[in-house]
Amino acid sequence: MQKSPADCTSMADIRAEIDRLDKALMSLFAERWAYIDRAAEIKKPVGLKADIPARVNEVRRNARKNAEKAGLDPDFYEDIWARLIQHSIEHEQVVLGEIER
């Protein structure tokens, strides 16, 4: 059963909740990745490139804004998102035939 941080009374409770959240985050990342794959499928026939700088900037700004709203360090989370974005772009470049892996 899920516990709030205040309901955790031991490190075992804390670890179990962190493990639960990590599993949920991986599921969300997998869902996000499915959209990246679909984006590449949509981009290919219309000739869009993998790297669209305006969209990259928008996603980074969104990451900062969402982090700030959640009370998190916007620099740290923008950096994480920058890595996600770069990984996604590299994957799309392969799918679109822009680069070889």
From TrEMBL:
GO MF entry, a single one: chorismate mutase activity
Keyword Lyase: yes
Pfam families: CM_2 (PF01817)
Annotated organism of origin: Rhizobium giardinii
Record-annotated Chorismate mutase domain positions: 5-96
Protein name in the entry: chorismate mutase
EC number from the UniProt entry: 5.4.99.5
Top-rank EC class of the record's enzyme: isomerase
Alphabetical keyword list: Isomerase, Lyase, Pyruvate
GO BP term, pick one: chorismate metabolic process
Record's keyword annotation contains Cytoplasm: no
Parts forming coiled coils: none
SMART domains: CM_2
Binding site for substrate: 15, 32, 43, 92
Superkingdom per UniProt: Bacteria
InterPro entries hit by this protein: Chorismate_II_sf, Chorismate_mutase-related, CM_dom_sf, CM_II_prokaryot, Isochorismate_pyruvate-lyase
